[in-house]
Amino acid sequence: MGYFPFFMELEGKRGVVAGGGKVAARKVEKLLMFGPMLTVIAPVIEACVRRQGELLQKDAAASLQFIERAFLMEDLSDADFVIAATDDEGLNGRIAQYCRAERIPVNVVDDKDKCTFLFPALVKEGPLTVGIVTEGKSPAASSWVRQEIADMLPEGIGDIIDLLGRIRPAVLQMGLEEEARKRLFEKIFYDCLEKGTAEYDKDWDKRQ
Question: Which residues contact 164 (CB under 8 A, 6 or more apart)?
């Protein structure tokens, strides 16, 4: 049947990561780009995980907290989403069972059957986010597709999309018909792509 790719707002949401090794570090690295408040809990939190906190910008929306002790099920009580990335299969299973009962989205690393959401391979350029999943069947294929997409994207695509977002309210107030607005947005987008920069001819609409 496949998995529908919901895109959720994570800024300000509380995420709990059970596990403090390299796998947890990879998950934390990707999640922090989206502004959640993450708490990593493990008896030993490795340097590769702690480094993710050092890389956070001071003005970043995300936050990262470390609790170095054994994981407790009550750590999940107010979580908005959970990543189970421990090397204890039994603990991962108990975390998944609790989250399912409490309707908390959970991802159990390397165990698709225990997940209620999959962790995609990501391509992110500013506001553009592409998520790739293979239903957990081939991480290698997901990684290959991710790299192919990243390589094909034109430089500055994120800046161009940001530009379109900034001018969108002004365009919507111009009183154009829907089709005219669509042509204007497309014209600006393709002009920017052609020039390779987030700049556009501000008088284009006046000549239509």
Answer: 185, 188, 189
- The reply to whether the predicted model has a pTM over 0.90 is no
3-state secondary structure 7-18: CCCCCCCEEEEE
In the predicted model, residues of the chain with pLDDT beneath 50 are 204, 207-208
122: exposed, middle or buried (Cβ count in 10 Å: 0-12, 13-18, 19+): middle
Under DSSP, is residue 45 helix (H, G, I), strand (E, B) or coil? coil
Q: What is the pLDDT of residue 189?
A: 92
Task: State the Cα–Cα distance between residues 109 and 131, nearest whole angstrom.
Answer: 17
The DSSP output letter for 199 is -
What is the tens place of the pLDDT at every residue in 64-120? 999 999 999 999 999 999 999 999 999 999 999 999 999 999 999 989 999 999 989
State how far the Cα of 33 lies from the Cα of 31, in Å rounded to an integer.
5
Strands 63-68 and 37-42 turn out to be: parallel
DSSP string of 125-186? ETTEEEEE--TTS-HHHHHHHHHHHHHHSPTTHHHHHHHHHHHHHHHHTT---HHHHHHHHH
Q: Distance between CA 35 and CA 126 in Å, rounded?
A: 13
How far apart are the C-alpha atoms of 1 and 179, rounded to whole Å? 36
**Angle, helix 22-32 to helix 47-55, in steps of 10 degrees:** 10
